[in-house]
Write a structure and sequence with these properties.
alpha+beta; Glutaredoxin; three-stranded antiparallel beta sheet; 10 strands
Length: 168
Amino acid sequence: MNLADMAKKLKVTQDVTRVDKLKEGDKAPDFSLKNQDGKTLTLKDYKGKKIALYFYPKDDTPGCTAESCNLRDNYSVLKKKGYEVIGVSIDSEKSHKKFANKFSLPYSLLADTEKDMVNNYGVWGEKTLFGRKYMGIIRTTFIIDENGKIEKIIKDVETADHTSQILA
């Protein structure tokens, strides 16, 4: 069974409480975080480029792996269309490094261990799974244009076919 099939089979509906802090047309909040290689990246580093900025709950879990691998498998298509891909979770640089190496991810994964970026983008919120409430990242992707404005927000992410959503 491939990752896409596993993700679909394991798909469990979660209730989430969104704080729609940002909307399309807003200026994307700046960030300054380290990636899996210890390099500090900021929004300004991507000026003049389109960004597919995806927030995901946890490294090396079925849905997050399916999403990340879908973006990896279509990375050349995304690059040809002018996109830079950046993943963000609250996992550590070390966890990101292991995840990126295990699945040969060719793009940066930012470690937001202090939860500053997830709060600034409004993707940290209450989730309910099997009746249990907890706080976590609400899977969301922001398409940011060359001038740092939010062009599109994808809230209902299809992990196994996320590239199609980005390019639509």
